[in-house]
Amino acid sequence: MRMYDLIKKKRDGNILSTEEINFFVDNYTNGNIPDYQMSALLMAIFLNKMDKKETLDLTSAMINSGDTVDLSSIKGIKVDKHSTGGVGDTTTLILGPMVAACDVPFVKMSGRGLGHTGGTLDKLESISNFRVALSKEEFINNANKINISICSQTANITPADKKFYALRDVTATVENLSLIASSIMSKKLAIKSDAIVLDVKVGSGAFMKSIDDSINLAKEMVEIGCGYGRETVAVVTNMDEPLGNAIGNALEVKEAIATLKGDGPEDLYELCLVLGSKLLVLAKRVSTEKEGRNLLIEVVNSGKAYSKLIELVKYQDGDISSIENPHLLPTAKYIIEVKSSKEGYVKALNAEEVGKCALILGAGRETLDSELDLAAGIVLNKKVDDKVFMGDVLAYIHSNDLEKVKIAEERLKELYIIGEKNPISKKLIYEEISSSGIQHL
């Protein structure tokens, strides 16, 4: 088998066999195929697309390129959740304890933030001594003992995807549904949970900017998950403005704590209830999403979900005193009010640009080597559809650097579009995609 023949075959719009896909994935991962030939094949795939079987075969080959994590020794039906990335997306820190408090094992290997999107591991590491690197044995034992385990990926999970993504990033071949879906799902499926809920973001702060593109990506990922024998459901959710109010690592942990105590932002809590109720149904803990929702509300109101967060922190060597007293979490030297010079309603608040403001403050990474300021970030006081009077505080900037504050403040003021009330209220959740089709929510 020759790489030249595969490039020509895909260039001419033909279907690659399972053996051919395994060949190029294995040999490129092992360094036997040069970048220039792999780039040519990626461009042929980008232009001529892949069918469902090719996409599933590509996902399978990437999974098999490295280690997988067998979770069969964890009691019960194991569930996982994945978000395609956004701004202020703190759901894992809230959803995980809520689901675990309902006696369903929630197991997740998470990543770090890059650019305007935050990473779950960075947020957790704003808790003093919290350990994100767990052995497989610790990961499994914690899930069995307290129904929740969240850690970093092992170095050898889907090494093919790491190489492929680095090449796609510099060859203008990122925006292809099969390549995106197989990249995301290979990492999810290498961790052998039983059921997955996908939170597919759409809007200014998301990778996918249009509803149609998000639905198509969700369909592709659900087909891969179900084709691989895992129960998979996707929900398309709004990322035109940040989720919740806090953007920044320690700030988002504080917001997660408040939400688990029943005092968090309405949109963030609602999304956790929607995603969580679907996970409880997939785990067969409840028969209907309504039952699941009621159970999740009950564990929040009773304090069980908050207690589960404390258990998670304790079992991963974190300082639980900073959960019990959130003021012990990293705190910025300066908290600056951003005030409105207009009156009206917030019409729009571009999530990506707000994320970039937080990035300026040090809450995110420009590159993987960038150093984070765990205390830095933004807390929104006004969001889309809120009434604003002259002089109202729109947001609070948290920073340890006044020069950075000046830049972020000017940009934030420009991002708040204030005028007449929007004729249609913002929507949080658009669609659900499952093996049975698309449901408008």
UniProtKB/TrEMBL annotation:
InterPro entries: Glycosyl_Trfase_fam3, Glycosyl_Trfase_fam3_N_dom, PYNP_C, Pyrmidine_PPas_bac/euk, Pyrmidine_PPase_CS, Thymidine/pyrmidine_PPase. PROSITE patterns: THYMID_PHOSPHORYLASE. GO terms for molecular function: pyrimidine-nucleoside phosphorylase activity. Its EC number is 2.4.2.2. Residues 345-419 form the Pyrimidine nucleoside phosphorylase C-terminal domain. It catalyses: 2'-deoxyuridine + phosphate = 2-deoxy-alpha-D-ribose 1-phosphate + uracil; uridine + phosphate = alpha-D-ribose 1-phosphate + uracil; thymidine + phosphate = 2-deoxy-alpha-D-ribose 1-phosphate + thymine. It comes from the Bacteria. Keywords: Glycosyltransferase, Transferase. Belongs to the thymidine/pyrimidine-nucleoside phosphorylase family. Homodimer. This is Pyrimidine-nucleoside phosphorylase. It comes from Tissierella simiarum.
